[in-house]
Amino acid sequence: MKTAKIFLFVVAAFVVASCKVDDPFVDRVVAPVLLVFDNAIGDGGGFTTEPTVTSKATLANATLSVRIYELDKTNILDYKKGIDSIPVSGLALSVTTRAGVKIADITTDASGKATLTKTWADLGMSAPKAGSTVSLTLTGIHKSQSFSKLARLQAN
């Protein structure tokens, strides 16, 4: 009887341990594009979760420029060719603050570059000082897949 209880306990433990539980907080999907920011601190956002882009606080307008690429991984196993970065043209992006306030809609040109130029006041900073930041979200849809990229615009 004691052996049967131990056996049932072990079987129940295996059944419970073998259940796959999905992560309830993060449903990750690979982004369809790569966003690389100009004037960013570090690598420009390719490997940075939330890149910081700098713009002069002394100028009336702040500028945020981003290049958007689709990655062709056809030749990923051929070290002589590798991954191709193909500029995405005509891609519409919505730029909002992290609080959800819409800043602007921008579109990439033929080289995959989109530029946002707004006054610091439009970004929520009436008197920017060096080091002050605005947290932004860029969102878009490429090949029926939506994506979002976080970024910070910092006055310097």
Explain how this protein is built:
- The chain has one helix at 2-17, and strands spanning 34-37, 52-55, 61-72, 84-87, 92-97, 102-107, 113-119, 133-142, 145-155.
- It is elongated.
- It is mainly β and 156 residues long.
- The longest helix is centred in the first third of the chain and has 16 residues, at 2-17.
- It has 1 helix and 9 strands; from the N terminus they run αβββββββββ.
- A hairpin with a 4-residue loop joins strand 5 (92-97) and strand 6.
- The model has no long low-confidence stretch (mean pLDDT 85).
- It starts with a helix and ends with a strand.
Detail the topology: elements first, then pairings:
Elements: H1 2-17, E1 34-37, E2 52-55, E3 61-72, E4 84-87, E5 92-97, E6 102-107, E7 113-119, E8 133-142, E9 145-155
Parallel strand pairs: 2-9
Antiparallel strand pairs: 1-3, 3-4, 3-7, 5-6, 5-8, 8-9
